[in-house]
Amino acid sequence: MKEALAAVEEFLSHTRPGLLAIITHVNPDPDAVASAILAKLLLEKISRTRSVIIFPEGPSKISKKLLSRLSLNVPFTLEPPNTIGAAVVIDTPSSTQLSSLAELVVSLGSRVLVIDHHASGGDLVSKARYRVWRPEVACTVILVELLTQAKVKIDAPLATLSIAGIIYDTARFQRATPQSLRAVARLMEMGGAYDIALSSLQEPASMSERIARLKAASRVSIVQVGNIIVAGTYVASHEAAAARALLGLGADIAVVVGGKRGELRVSMRASRDFVALTGLSLGRDIVPLLTDILGGEGGGHDTSAGFNAKGDPQQALSSILRVIYSEVSSRIFRASKDRGKRHLHWTSKSK
To answer: What residue numbers bound the domain in which 297 lies?
Structure first.
């Protein structure tokens, strides 16, 4: 983390912005919101740089609930002021995730610092002159480490929000790492309340989410590769929730395509067993292939990934399923060949 903190200090020294924008992806989830607030704290403590937090299209529903529950009055804006001199992009590897702010960030060129944790880096990560990047289960973990290295204290409400961000992005520690557990321990020592963070994330699914899950199941296409079940479907919204629901129904990997007016949003989820059996990572292996085929951008982790592009949802879904079929079958065939036998067949069922 010493090198990471040095990169932040070098960025501030070279850009010397009058006003710094801290920007997250559209509708930031608890991990992105916590990371942005922690980044503002870090930047203002180590350099007294004035900064403004920008949450494109506003925080997500669960993020708003957390901020209210913890009585955290965090000033933010939806659009950048005209006086922005540089930007720190948080938890966002690809410019397509910034919506209308993408043009601004790209135009700033080398006056951008990217702090990100996704396994597959998008165009922002790959092109950034200044970056703090490593594959990690939550961006909040990286920010907590930076603040610890800088010896900056985090107050109790923000520590609790940060715990919630880590819980959220690790799916309640189903994707835990030693670093994430150490970060939560540090946050609890600073006064963070684990029980409040956990309970604040628990809420019943909305009516629209419940309907989206049911529609996703009713439209599902199933591809079987050996003992692997790949489920694909399309909905108008709540793609991530629908993907998780398909895993709960028995899929090893779920692909849900959504979006409106030609804008595609793809959410993918896979089980840990799928990753262990095939060695495939959604973020590292599948997303780059989709970029080549569909021309969009995305990022993610081994068991969770997102992708944005343009096109027809059903055609895109068909292309994605064929990519996954090809990759999974080649991995299984390779393993079977090593054992001197092959057990592969294709079956596809749609409703």
So the answer is: 207-350
